[in-house]
């Protein structure tokens, strides 16, 4: 358990967020995240990528504990995040329960709520322990056409505290497509040295949202990620990442956007998913 606590609290990314491991046993874990502006959107609202990160961290904490220290490296092979409400200038508690333990997979349910009990997100995860297997030779993303037009919104996205602290920058955001880059910095890293998958999830979430905005007409609308499904194909490498988003469908309120997150050096995909984004005009 000391190894699990060290990973949760001392990985540079989770340490920057301020994640605390309150308790853990063979079937459950509780985390706490005190409020800080650095984890927020405008208006002191907890960023959705931060909430998704908590689900990933809590799920991995349980899997690492029950599968044992020799079962790594670990990654969230599948995750479903449903955002239920906004946390505004509020401390967060995370309760995770082991649903089933297999030989390599652990299925974990996670509830994210405020300390006052308001539900913020419900998350289900499938965490894989690779049992020492070598890294998989992931497929190469087809990328995009290489345009570099960030549109009207793109240059301002980095001013959002949580996004700016990740170093995320919008390179392209037009005609229903987006391309965002995230440099490798220590505050985005895992204890093992690669990019922390929580930071990967934040990049994926933001890229899907930007693809949705690139499809819609920017305006003074209310918007948020309603849900997202994502898959990490393995632990993220050490290096810069690039994410490609494409809005594949919308009904003028709900926008579905596919996203791939790849290594900037060789294009190999480390994560993929679909972001369900809502824009109320």
Largest sheet: 12 strands, antiparallel
Structural class: alpha+beta
Mean model confidence by pLDDT: 96
Strand order of the largest sheet: 1-2-6-7-8-5-11-14-13-12-10-9
Can you write the helix and strand succession as a string?
HHEEEEHEEEEHHEEHEEEE
Oligomeric form: single chain
Rg calculated over all Cα atoms: 17 Å
What's the count of strands? 14
Domain count: 2
The CATH topology of the largest domain is given as Thiol Ester Dehydrase, Chain A
Annotated CATH architecture of the largest domain:
Roll
Summarize the amount of helix as a percent range: 10-25%
Task: State the separation between the terminal residues, measured CA to CA.
Answer: 48 Å
Contiguous uncertain segments of 5+ residues: none
Outline, from the CA principal axes? globular
User: Tell me, what is the CATH class of the largest domain?
Assistant: Alpha Beta
Please provide a brief summary of the model.
By secondary structure, the protein is an alpha+beta fold. It has helices at residues 2-10, 12-17, 48-67, 154-157, 161-166, 197-215, and strands at residues 20-24, 28-33, 40-41, 45-46, 74-83, 92-101, 105-114, 119-129, 169-174, 177-182, 222-232, 241-250, 254-263, 269-280.
Please tell me about this protein's structure.
The chain is of the alpha+beta class and 281 residues long. The chain has two domains: 128 residues, Hotdog Thioesterase (Thiol Ester Dehydrase, Chain A), CATH 3.10.129.10; 127 residues, Thiol Ester Dehydrase, Chain A (Roll), CATH 3.10.129. The chain is built from six helices and 14 strands. It has a twelve-stranded antiparallel sheet with strand order 1-2-6-7-8-5-11-14-13-12-10-9. Helix 1 packs antiparallel against helix 3 and helix 3 packs antiparallel against helix 6. It is globular and about 50 Å long. The chain starts with a helix and ends with a strand.
């Amino acid at each position: 358990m000391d190894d699990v606590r060290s990973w949760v609290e001392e990985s540079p990314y989770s340490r920057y967020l301020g994640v605390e491991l309150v308790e853990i046993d063979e079937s459950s874990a509780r985390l706490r995240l005190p409020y800080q502006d650095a984890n927020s959107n405008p208006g002191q609202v907890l960023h959705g990528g931060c909430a998704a990160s908590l689900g990933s961290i809590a799920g991995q904490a349980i899997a690492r504990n029950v599968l044992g220290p020799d079962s790594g490296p670990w990654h969230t092979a599948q995750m479903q995040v449903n955002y239920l409400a906004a946390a505004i200038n509020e401390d967060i508690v995370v309760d995770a329960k082991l649903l089933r333990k297999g030989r390599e997979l652990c299925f974990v349910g996670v509830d994210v709520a405020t300390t006052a009990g308001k539900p913020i997100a419900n998350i289900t995860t499938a965490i894989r322990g690779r049992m020492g297997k070598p890294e998989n030779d992931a497929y190469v993303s087809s990328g995009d056409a290489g345009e570099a037009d960030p549109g009207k919104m793109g240059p301002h996205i980095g001013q959002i505290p949580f996004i700016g602290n990740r170093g995320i920058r919008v390179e392209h955001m037009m005609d229903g497509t987006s391309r965002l880059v995230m440099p490798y910095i220590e505050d985005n890293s895992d204890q093992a040295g690669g990019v922390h998958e929580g930071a990967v999830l934040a990049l994926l979430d933001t890229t899907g949202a930007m693809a949705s905005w690139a499809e819609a007409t920017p305006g003074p609308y209310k918007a948020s990620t309603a849900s997202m499904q994502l898959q990490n194909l393995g632990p993220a490498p050490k290096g810069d990442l690039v994410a490609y988003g494409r809005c594949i469908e919308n009904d003028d309120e709900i926008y579905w956007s596919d996203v791939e997150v790849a290594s900037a050096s060789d294009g190999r995909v480390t994560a993929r998913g679909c972001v369900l984004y809502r824009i109320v005009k």
